[in-house]
Protein 1
Amino acid sequence: MNVAGPATRGVSTRVVLFGVLALAVNLRAALAGYPPLIETVRADLGVDAGTAGLVQSGAVLMMAVGSFVGPMIGARLGRERALGWSVGLIALGSLVRGVPALAALIAASLVIGLGIGLAGVLLTGVVKHHLAARAGAVTGGYVVSMMVGATVASALGVPLAIALGGWSFSLAVWTVPAVLAVAAWTPIARRIAEPTSAAAAAGARRALPWRDPFARRSACYQAGTSMMFYGWITWLAPYYEGQGWSPQHAGVLLAAWSVTQIPSALVVPALAERRRRWRFWASTTLACGIAGTVGAILLPQPPGIGPWLWVVLLGIGVGAGFPLGLAVIAWRTPDGHASAATSGLALGVGYVAAALAPLVMGLLIDLTGGYPAALALLVAAGLLQAGAVWRIGDHPRAGDHSADGRTVSPASRPGP
């Protein structure tokens, strides 16, 4: 399958795709390695649930900052070079997490979040510009790569802490894959980097497309799916620890949740692209996520099957949600700069909402002494996402308009 755009300039398409996937592995691993260790961190540092949630919320808030400024930084430095630097920030933050202190944990999490936010926006522009012919499939592929990193980090968080002698060393391990990814990407970026024109730089400095209806709907969509993802990635393991699961088994449950996201993220965007039925697939997978959340609240451990049914439904919902949101932006924007700007707005707003979810959920847990009220917040997030799905509809055909108001020609539509 040829996924190349015109700008790969002699670099193998597979090499460019490999570099994108290697970078993407690091865009959730550092975040996913923390939740299985929350109770251990709380006991070691003597902090409450709200403070523990603040660590994750601070990281996600910085992801929003990175998303908002990513288009401008990409225009100044070049998307390809800036993408490498952003993953370098993830490596730096992971290394600082090796210091077992609350201040170091919070500061390092902020740096990691900034790097992830920058990388997420820049990746969408790189895919649109260099791998545009199959943007949906490629987007699903790099989201799956992110999920693989998250799955491994969730499963190994507690065992690494035991083997290495502390939770801080377990978190610091994720420096290694980030450094390796930057080392692999740097020579690729030098070959494919596009010179930034004055017009492109000026366009990136303009305000984000707040007035565009599609961009606003995409922002609402990302707010819902991001709250669902970051709420569950932070509190799924602690929730089931409260149901009597050991920390190690709860970490395996979180890893299973991540694994079930992979086929959904890989297959559903490609089906939506091929069949021109974005709304159908977005609605179907979102219904699974809401059903899993409601089930986990009302009957956390059904007799005979435990929480595994809810975990599968939740995985399907959040697994497809994020790549579908990115894919529809790639389909409806005319070039890499417009894609980065629209995704910058959507991801930025989404991460602001997602940053509040772990924190507010932690506060609700402290205030109510339990999880139902906190998990009900995720049901509300799903309903917000459902409203956005209905308004966005299916991706455009000839004569429809892109996010910047241009008419979409048949040649610019995604192929079957």
Note: The two ends are 12 Å apart (CA to CA).
Protein 2
Amino acid sequence: SKYSAILDDIGVNQAPWKALSSLDEALTFAASVGYPCLLRPSYVLSGFSYDVAYGPDDLRG
């Protein structure tokens, strides 16, 4: 969120994002912004463990 705040301060557009801790929160957020959604575990700093959800079933998986 610190990096996002810096981007906001300097006027750089970014995709909608949110830190979530439950499947229900993730499903609600994804439904509000639309699919596909990029998923990142909290412990990952690079793109190694990212995943893409193309719909609710992918997100549940």
Note: Helices lie at 2-10, 23-33, 56-60.
Protein 3
Amino acid sequence: MIKEGGVAVEPRGGGGSGAYEARRRQALRARYAYGFVFFATNLLAWFVRDYGARALRGLHHVPVCGAGDSKCFQSGGVLRIFFWVMFATTFGTRKLYEARNSWHSGCWILKLLVYVVSIGIPFVIPNIFIQLYGEIARLGAGIFLLLQLISMLHFISWCNKRWMPDPGSKQCGLFGLFLSTISFIASFAGIIVLYLLYVPNSSCAFNIFTITWTGNLGDDNDGSVASFKGWNGAPGSGCSLVNVGLLSSGIMGSYIVFLCWSALHSEPQTGKCYSQLKIAKDGDWATIVSFIIAICSIVMATFSTGIDTRSFQFRNDEVEMEEDTPYSYEVFHTVFAMGAMYFAMLFISWELNHPTKKWSIDVGWASTWVKIINEWIAASIYIWRLISPVVLRSQRVIDEEVVAHRPAV
């Protein structure tokens, strides 16, 4: 019930609290269905890329496809699979009693038909528009990486608040310290493993620089946290002298090392710095397993970013009403749509006319540099988040001193 002017009023849409609770649960369950659809859609994109030319011979008779394989298959086929329909049809949904909420959480048979149509229509769209979408997909994939980074930083902050002691508390946060230790050990060990795998000889200057710079970024994170020791803790409070940012720094260091490994793993499979431990034969069982694991991990990362809609809200102090949707539908579907763009870039290695190999994903110098830049941005944002409170506070102190010593007029 909602009170207006001290009078109890039945919520709009009827059904009361029980109906709202049922709709809320239905909306939360719908996220997993969309996650499965997203997974299946990207498997379809891979199938069209690698096997569409043989399995879908009928498309050769479509005017925009022609007899060649590149326009509707390989990279062209990947770019023809969109994921924007649900965003367009649920944009602005805020209340559980709205018809668009029912569309988002139900009507699966009708949505299946819409899905099939949305998959088929792009194969009759002129190629010039597909190339334009490819350029837009590059931008959307980059935005998706930033959204994923924001979600990751939000997760790191949650872990730090959950398992590390509050400022002034006498609690030791032993579990948080254990996780911090494991994270720092993993980061250090990861750097060593990267040297062993990707620096077979001293002439691999690019790999040496990338790994060394990653190690320096990790040291910068550790140094930033060390510089704050005692900042959040009160003197004489025992275990609270342990810096509360220790866990977040450890997790971020491990994440940066992971991004470095991902970048080096995307290097072309040629050259003297190509690790012999990588999969060399195309199409063997190890390649297939690694390909499937890569797809599943990216799908899970997209899903976790999509459900974390609160990280992308400009205001988190809004009062939630009983009839409000449990999460932002447009943000959820936007993340999935941009995740589909990111997947498309992985399948074509960020190059619109890239000749891809079967069972390959995200291999090429363009992919390598995208991940390296993403790593540097992640480290820079995190370090700024650590030092910004002190920098801004110092600036305020300086401004106050200037005002205090300014002669009166």
Note: Residues 242 and 303 are 34 Å apart (CA to CA).
